[in-house]
Design a protein that fits this description.
By secondary structure, this protein is α/β, with parallel strands linked by helices. The protein is built from 15 helices and twelve strands. Strands 9-8-7-6-10-11-12 form a seven-stranded mixed beta sheet. Strands 1-2-4-3-5 form a five-stranded mixed beta sheet. Helix 1 packs parallel to helix 3, helix 1 packs across helix 14 and helix 12 packs across helix 13. The protein is globular, with a radius of gyration of 21 Å. The structure holds nicotinamide-adenine-dinucleotide.
């Protein structure tokens, strides 16, 4: 199988590579070479014209040694078994790096949601939950939003789950609307978490923010919030893109006005030429490929996985890459980048703000007590800075890449939980 084309095989190859250097029992890596459960379901949806369409939905529980599994649901035409398993494996590592009491999961539906009417989208969201109701639950597996899903969709899903179970159960899904038990600060959490990691890295590297030129691929939930917070600190966001292409301006963009216009016209390239802000900022249109290869200081892939491959790795000029998307750099491409002395802040740390605040939402739902936004931001900062410090410290002291450090920490934590159940050495030596 071609690793370039199979993201799960690539994720497994990376796990093995990371496991070799991590000084953990081979049993831990063996355990994580297999997904515990992978459910595939056909989701019948009544379309507005009266016909029925069948969509394929997936849910993968990767590993639950550290707790109930946790991971988003993606609605995208390219969703497939391999992608769902890779994303679920990365969630397992991510939750362990952040020190959360969760294993990893992921779900998705192979669909282009932009082609559905709002009512078709609602029926699809409910059909997904009907198919997966026996596999999810507050102590089993807790979904959340991911690419092309949002709080409204999570709201429909919780409602469907509660209808099936005939009881209120807000802790079954996170990323809900606030009015249905969602948490303050969940919408910005992934971007804020990434921003906090960049702030910590900048402190250690002595960056002066106005001198740092940033390119961001993917201007959705995660990309927008990280861009907004970086700009507030003085960073220059010189390039941004969405699925239809990107824009570049040496002087930098005003993120709030680009975002407002994008919401109106749903396309970033139209932002500065079809509306009143046309004259405000000189810019040029660029492709997503060009964006990745720009000569900037900081590159932030915040869209989809597998965008930096062996084909373009040697063309990447940015010395620092922060992975806000899950899995944007394939394993062999990373080896090329590390050979070029690039510093890569890995997804399993950089985008963990989302699952950290999802964890807060789950805790609030279970205790029936809602926290203030300040409290959530403080606790997020405390948790992600702690995780960042551990990864950075391990990287410095054990001379590892930041990804290798993050995997090492995660595999050791999972290893401790595996050992607590009893390992081969334990039983072989007949210890009591
Ligand atoms: P989103 O749906 O809000 O935004 C996705 C953005 O990516 C959109 O702007 C879309 O136009 C763009 N995009 C899609 N295909 C693209 C392509 N081929 N080239 C360039 N841009 C493209 O999704 P999101 O929640 O912001 O997620 C983005 C990434 O962050 C994903 O990899 C996701 O798994 C990861 N992530 C999200 C969260 C979260 O809480 N939302 C948490 C952790 C990780």
């Amino acid at each position: 199988m071609n690793k370039q084309n199979d993201i799960y095989q690539d994720a497994l190859a990376r796990l093995q590579q990371m496991g070799q250097g991590a000084d953990v029992s081979p049993e831990v890596v063996d355990l994580l070479m297999h997904a515990e459960v992978l459910v595939t379901a056909s989701l019948p949806v009544r379309m507005d014209d009266g016909s029925t369409r069948y969509f394929t939905g997936y849910r993968c529980h990767y590993n639950n040694v550290l707790g109930p599994t946790k991971g988003g649901i993606r609605f995208h035409p390219q969703v497939n078994r391999s992608e769902v398993q890779a994303l679920a494996l990365w969630m397992t590592i991510k939750c362990a790096v952040a020190g959360l009491p969760y294993g990893g999961a992921k779900g998705g539906v192979e669909v282009n949601p932009k082609e559905l009417s709002p009512m078709e989208l609602e029926r699809l969201s409910r059909a997904y939950v009907r198919a997966m109701a026996d596999f999810i639950g507050p102590d089993i597996d807790i979904p959340a939003p991911d690419v092309y899903t949002n709080a409204r969709i999570m709201g429909w899903m919780v409602d469907e789950y509660e209808t099936i179970k005939r009881q209120r159960s807000p802790a079954v899904i996170t990323g809900k609307p606030i009015s249905l038990g969602g948490s303050l600060g969940r919408d910005e959490a992934t971007g804020r978490g990434a921003y906090l990691c960049i702030r910590e890295m900048a402190d250690r590297l002595g960056w002066v923010s106005p001198e740092i030129r940033v390119a961001i691929q993917g201007f959705g939930n995660a990309g927008y919030h990280v861009a907004r917070l970086l700009q507030k600190d003085g960073y220059r966001i010189v390039a941004i893109s969405d699925s239809k292409g990107g824009i570049y301006s040496e002087g930098g963009f005003d993120i709030e006005s680009v975002w407002t216009q994008k919401i109106k016209v749903r396309q970033i390239q139209a932002v500065y030429c079809e509306h009143t802000v046309c004259e405000l900022v000189e810019h040029k249109k660029i492709s997503n490929k060009e964006l990745l290869e720009l000569d900037v200081d900081l590159l932030i892939p915040a869209a989809l996985e597998g965008v930096i491959t062996t084909k373009n790795a040697a063309n990447i000029k940015a010395p620092y890459i922060v992975e806000v998307a899950n899995g944007p750099i394939l394993t062999e491409a990373e080896n090329i980048l590390l050979g070029d002395n690039k510093i890569i802040l890995p997804d399993v740390l950089a985008n963990s703000g989302g699952v950290i605040v999802s964890y807060f939402e789950w805790v609030q739902n279970r205790s029936g007590y809602a926290w203030s936004l300040e409290e959530i931001r403080e606790r997020l900062e405390e948790m992600i800075v702690k995780a960042f410090n551990e990864v950075w410290h391990t990287s410095m002291h054990e001379e590892r890449s930041l990804r290798s450090s993050a995997y090492t920490i995660a595999l050791r934590r999972i290893g401790d939980a595996v050992a607590a159940h009893g390992t081969r050495e334990y039983f072989k030596n007949g210890k009591k």
